[in-house]
Design a protein that fits this description.
It comes from Kaistella antarctica. This protein is α+β, with helices and mostly antiparallel strands and 345 residues long. It is built from 8 helices and 16 strands. The strands form 2 sheets. Strands 8, 9, 10, 11, 12, 13, 14, 15 and 16 form a 9-stranded antiparallel sheet that branches. Strands 1-7-6-5-4-3-2 form a 7-stranded antiparallel sheet.
């Protein structure tokens, strides 16, 4: 009994000593982290103000294969939001919001972690330096209760390590992206060519929607995000493990009031999926008439008509039109795509 009383006294003393020491620890932390990356501001900034891009290289999200992420419109800039949850750990979840944007200069983000009502405030400043970009992270951590203030002693190290790893991921991602852009600079737009397509396996979703004004493109953006999110977050695919998204539809349905299409992303092999909204579709090898198109999405119609006219002149049978988005479909006025029409004798 005496030993029990003695143990209680020791425990109370230790707790008291800990609580007293925490009076000398700040209730929240403010720290600054500066990084420089060898890519220009116009390449770097879109990787921050688009939360889908942001989660693809940020180590906190990219390294946790159990995270399920949901994005909310608008998908970039002021008002963008996302939520995340660890499917194997109920204590890991949160929300991220973009609260302020000054394009290519400043971003203000808030991260609400778990059930906490006080967010991390993350202010980002972008400074262009010729072909490089300096990024300054201003981190303001939420206030901690007296007994949890010890977390502030390690929070800065955690953020520094996370940002170091994230910036390495971003550098690799931008390297691949720039290589693709250089290849595209050599493309001849609006010229009809003939190609031979290899077999492809797509994972995607079947859709029907109205074809009025820009409703079709808005619908494409929504379904692109559904498929991309499933491939990246549910199947845990990295950028080099999937191809560019392809929309498959009847070649001449641009005249219809309602259109049906399949929107899919190429994968190397078929995998077991449990979500019935998604399905696999195989594109067989074929000869194709191809036009590379850049511009307003509605303007693609003229290029499609060129393909149809060519097939008719050559008395060829036609398959479904394939619209490969060489850049992800986000802005209706600035689409870059490959229009492919399979043809047969």
């Amino acid at each position: 009994m005496r030993w029990m009383k003695f143990g209680v006294i020791i425990l109370v003393f230790l707790v008291g000593a800990y609580a007293l020491s925490m009076f000398f620890v700040e209730e929240n932390k403010n720290f600054t982290i500066e990084k420089e990356i060898n890519y220009p501001i116009d390449k770097v900034f879109p990787q921050f103000n688009n939360l889908q891009n942001f989660t693809s290289w940020n180590a906190f999200f990219a390294d946790n294969k159990n995270l399920s992420v949901q994005y909310f419109t608008p998908y970039e800039g002021l008002g963008s939001a996302m939520s995340y949850v660890d499917e194997k750990d109920d204590d890991v979840f949160g929300d991220v919001f973009i609260r302020y944007e000054n394009p290519e200069k400043t971003l203000k983000l808030q991260l609400f972690e778990g059930k906490k009502n006080t967010p991390y405030n993350i202010d980002l400043k972008f400074i262009p330096k010729n072909d490089k970009t300096k990024i300054i992270w201003y981190i303001h951590t939420p206030k901690q209760s007296l007994l949890k203030r010890s977390l502030n002693l390690i929070s800065e190290d955690y953020w520094v390590n996370n940002i170091d790893k994230s910036m390495k991921n971003l550098y690799q991602l931008l390297g691949k992206k720039v290589d693709k852009e250089i290849q595209r600079e050599n493309l001849k737009f609006d010229s009809l060519i003939v190609e031979q397509q290899d077999q492809q396996l797509l994972l995607g979703i079947n859709v029907s929607t109205k074809n009025i004004k820009d409703a079709l493109f808005r619908n494409i953006v929504i379904n692109h995000n559904k498929v991309a999110n499933f491939v990246k977050m549910d199947l845990h695919k990295k950028n080099d493990e999937y191809g560019e998204p392809i929309l498959i539809t009847d070649a001449d349905n641009f005249k219809d009031k309602e259109v049906s299409y399949f929107y899919g992303i190429p994968l190397s092999k078929q995998e077991k999926i449990t979500d019935n909204n998604f399905s696999f579709r195989t594109l067989n090898p074929s000869k194709q008439y191809v036009i590379f198109y850049k511009g307003n999405y509605a303007g693609r119609v003229q290029a499609i008509q060129q393909l149809l006219a060519k097939a008719k002149r050559d008395t060829m049978r036609m398959g479904d039109l394939q619209q490969t988005f060489l850049e992800e479909p986000f802005t209706e006025s600035n689409t870059v795509m490959k229009l492919s029409l399979p043809v047969y004798k």
